[in-house]
Structure formats: C-alpha cells, structure tokens
Write a structure and sequence with these properties.
Layout (H helix, E strand, L loop, with lengths): L14 H8 L7 E4 L7 E6 L4 E6 L12 H13 L8 E5 L9 E5 L18 H19 L17 H16 L5 H12 L8 E3 L8 E5 L2 E7 L6 E3 L1 H11 L23 H10 L8 H24 L11 H18 L3
Antiparallel strand pairs: 1-2, 2-3, 3-5, 4-5, 6-9, 7-8
GO molecular function: protein kinase activity
Protein name: Phosphotransferase family protein
InterPro entries: ACAD10-like, ACAD10_11_N, Aminoglycoside_PTrfase, Ser/Thr_kinase_AS
Amino acid sequence: MQAEQNDPKGLENVRPYLSEVLQVDQETIGIRQFKGGYSNLTYLITTPSKEFVLRRPPLGLKISKAHDMVREFRILEALQKAGYSKVPLPVDCCEREEIIGAPFFIMEKVEGLILRNRIPEGLTLDKDFFGQLSKNTLDGLLELHQLELQKSGLGQLGKPDGYTVRQVKGWSERYTKSKTDDLKAMEKVSEWLNLNIPKEEAVGFIHNDYKYDNLVLGGENNPEILAVLDWEMATVGHPLMDLGSSLAYWCEEDDNDLLKMFNLSHAPGNMSRSEVIHYYDKNSPLNLNDMVYYYAFGLFKVGVIAQQIYKRYCMGFADDPRFAGLIHVVEACGKKALESIKTQNI
C-alpha cells in the first residue's frame, strides 16, 4: 500500500533519507505528527514492518541546548550503556541540517499507554491504578537519580559544579528575554530564587521534565513504566531540582485548573505532593529540608517554558491555538510559586 505523500510541515524532504536509513521503499513510508506536545516536534514514522519516532526542534527557532537533537540522541545511547532500560532504542541521528533544516534523530517506537491531561475515552483508571502509578513514577525517578555516572559516560553530559546557581540565573534570564506581559508574581519569585539559593549540593543524572505524559505505560490494567520519553533537558545536576520540577507538574484536585493541563496527578488515587516528598525522602539519602525552594523553582521554570512558547506564538513561529492561552499558565505558575514561598508549604 502506498503511504500518503502529504508530509507534515518541516519534513517535506526527509523521505529519501528515511528510505536509506530504514532500508525501505520511500513510497511505503508513512509520516504523521503527534499532536499534544509544547516543545520539540515528534512524528510517527511507519514502514511495512515496523514503527519509529522522529524528533526535531521547533520550527523557526535557533537551536538551544533544550532543542539539541544530537545531544538527546547521545543521552539515549549513554543511558543504555548505564543499564537504564526504560528508554526507546536509538536508531539514527542526522546532523546534516540540509535534509530538513535542522538536526533530527530516529528511535524505535515503544507501544503502550501515554496519559495526557485527561483519561482517554473508553478507559477506566481507578484509584488503585493511580496509586501504583504514583509509586512506579517515583521509583523510576529515584532509580534515575542513583545511576552510576563515571563508567557509563553519563557524567560527561553535564557540569554538576554550581548547577543550581547556573539554573536559577539561566531561567531568570530566559524569562527576561521572553517576557511579553508584566507579571509581578513571576518577577518576585525570580528575585527570591536568586537571593535564597541553597548551599548544599548533590549530584545525579536528572531528566528535568519527568511527568506522566513522558511515560509509556504497560496499559490500562498495568501502570508499569515501559519507557521514559523526552530527554532533551536531561543532564547531570542536583536531583532535588528534578524532583522540584516533577512536583511543579504534580497538581492536586484543588489546584488552579490551568496547572492541571500537564499531568493527571490530580485524579483520585494519586499521592499528594506531601506524600510524594515523604516517599522520596524515605528512599533517598538526600536532605529535603529545602524542598520549598526546589518546588518554587520548578513552578518558575514551568512558567518560563510556557512564556517562551507564548512568545514564539506571538511572533508567528507557532500557530497552535493552544499556545494563545499560555500567558495565563505563566501567571498561574508565578502565583502558585509565590504562595508556596510565603506559606512555606508545598
């Protein structure tokens, strides 16, 4: 059967390359964009015998570390060498920008259930499912944070010395550069974060975007994690910065609806944020006394990411209608972080 030749924007000239790498007739290759992401673009590549996933940076954007496809491919390779099995098999990395205008990579597709911001139609996921998923998710994060770094080569993928300071200053600068509206809460949070950086450091391999919609699960009756996706922000740094980012996405039932757009952690049966912290604390040697700081940073970072996407939308580089309302997400993140700082509660 001949595949549809109407390729998505940004992949118009990729078929000859895919044909050579995957060793199939280009007429039999299907290409379809996965909808729902807010950052790098992801596509399903189908062939007569197998399915793959292609990842490329957003359109109309200079490549930054967060959109470095070559680096993400190297991370997948290094994680495999480190014995971390929950990653898709990396297949090929193309650094030649003349193919589609940017570097990209191909990996095998892992079949399973991915939970977005609502339970898929036709599925019944009960409290037991989400209770076990909460535990599996944290066990996976703990496993990642405790990976061996030197022999595996993972240690070469980041600079842990001064990591927290660099991150706080870097995300504050990103907010300033992408700012479109005057949001007082975000400004106050940025100032507080820069003035209150914890002195205690720790080192581990961190994902930096670890949440339910980046996990491939066994199925509606099996919350086992088969694979973790979207490694573009992974590095070597402070594991509690990673936990803080995950907590920023870990919304509860009474949180602002805008903050529930990114994770199903508010469904009945999930651990609360305080239970997440208690579970991690019980299974980690790290000192969690400064978790309010790392949680506030996580919320600030989520707000900056939303701000960057919103600015791209305002500049005409992204036309997804979902992006038009992201400025309200930025404001909600700032207010939630400021509330946590003032109350010293998470």
